[in-house]
Amino acid sequence: MTEPDEADVPEVGPDEELASALLDGEATDAEARRAAEPDIARAFAAYAEVAGLVGRPVEPVDAEAREAAIAAALAAFDRGETDEPHVTDELAARRPRARVTGWLGAVAAALVVLAGLGLLAALVADDDDSSSSETAASATDETAAASAPTTFATTTAPGADAAEEATSAAGGFAAAAPYLGDYADLDGLFTAARADPDARQESATDASGLDVQVPPGAFAGVPCAAEAEETGALLLGTATVDGAAATVLLETLGDGTRSIIVLTDPDCDAVRASFEP
Amino acid sequence: VVRGLHRFDGRAAFGTWCYRIATNACLDELRRRRRRPTVGLPDHEVRPASTGPPVDGGVVDRLAIDDALAGLPAEFRAAVVLRDLCQLDYAEIAEVLGIPAGTVRSRIARGRSALASALGAGEPSAQPGRPTELS
């Protein structure tokens, strides 16, 4: 079902709008003096009926009627009657397809596991001669750190010491929290955060202003974990700002405004920058 | 509400603030459902039951009213429900929805007009229970 559009709702004339306002006690004295005009009175009566219907509480069905309805439904079920035979036919027709899809899914999962094991074996084999490549990688990281990125390039293996502290000491969850980069200052981080697709994606947040449900312990191991959890905001990842480990969060307010929150070790004060999604 | 309590700044009444959170949550859920439509059972015609006791009239009416409300865009539905079901005044609805009071007045009138057409309200043989599609 598609959501109706504003264009689907017909415009109303000033008299009808006045009748509605009169019904709600929101008309001015001058407007109220026109209440007896036929067109306004007619619209008033119709709107009063609508308001009564919408606001009417639903009384529970009395026990006798409920039992009778249940008994009738059960009797119809026992007789094999149904008003929509094609519904069950359609469901039955879907089942073999679902079985095939299930087998394909299992085969695909097995292939993924095998590929993962192969990759793991290759990584273990390469571990012995990794010292030279580590040196090269370190040099590359330092070069990258010198220029602040303008968008998040997420990685789980930060090169800077502070960032390593942010993730390696983090435990299970921090390994999953993406590392967002090394920034010379907060301005650079905010600029990159605003451009980040995750920060702009509405589905990552909750327009109630309370953000998504954050599972207990979700912030375990990130810098300033207690303060981060207290914000109730969504974890975007960890970063390094001017050599200090930091946690980056996304907060959505009730009016739709979003804020990037950065908590930097060791003072853990929250610094915010708002933006329009 | 509890998790966001520290964000309540006292500019609006606490009740209004709660309505705002609930309304935003509902509108957000509607947007999510629009983005990810659920696969339902195939469309079928509902045939009147040939046997058994008649379904309670109040329930039928409520279903018809809910159908008619579902035919309104979310912004209009929210304004009508906050007024007729939650009994908020225009200023409170404006605060909850973040729109001017004049817009509230207009949306409620247009929403009621559409509902009146859908439910046959104000007509000599008004019979809620037979909603018609909005244009």
Write down the overall mean pLDDT of chain A.
71
How would you sum up the global shape of chain B? Answer: globular
Low-confidence runs of chain B: 45-50, 124-133
Beta-strand portion of chain A reads 5-15%
State the helical fraction of chain A.
40-55%
Query: Which oligomeric state applies?
Result: heterodimer
What is the terminal separation of chain B in angstroms?
A: 38 Å
Task: State mean pLDDT of chain B (0 to 100 scale).
Answer: 76
Radius of gyration of chain A: 31 Å
What class, by secondary structure content of chain B? mainly alpha
The biggest sheet of chain B amounts to: none
Low-pLDDT sequence parts of chain A: 129-148, 156-175, 202-213
Largest sheet of chain A: 5 strands, mixed
Total beta-strand segments of chain B: 0
Portion in strands of chain B: under 5%
Description:
The complex is a heterodimer of chains A (277) and B (135). By secondary structure, chain A is an alpha+beta fold. Chain A is built from 11 helices and 5 strands; from the N terminus they run H-H-H-H-H-H-H-H-E-H-H-H-E-E-E-E. In chain A, a hairpin with a 5-residue loop joins strand 3 and strand 4. In chain A, helix 1 packs across helix 3. Chain A starts with 13 loop residues before the first helix and ends with a strand. About 19% of the residues of chain A have low confidence. Chain B is an all-alpha fold. Chain B is 55% helix and 0% strand. Chain B has 5 helices and no strands. Chain B is globular. The C terminus of chain B is likely disordered. The chains are: A alpha+beta (277), B mainly alpha (135).
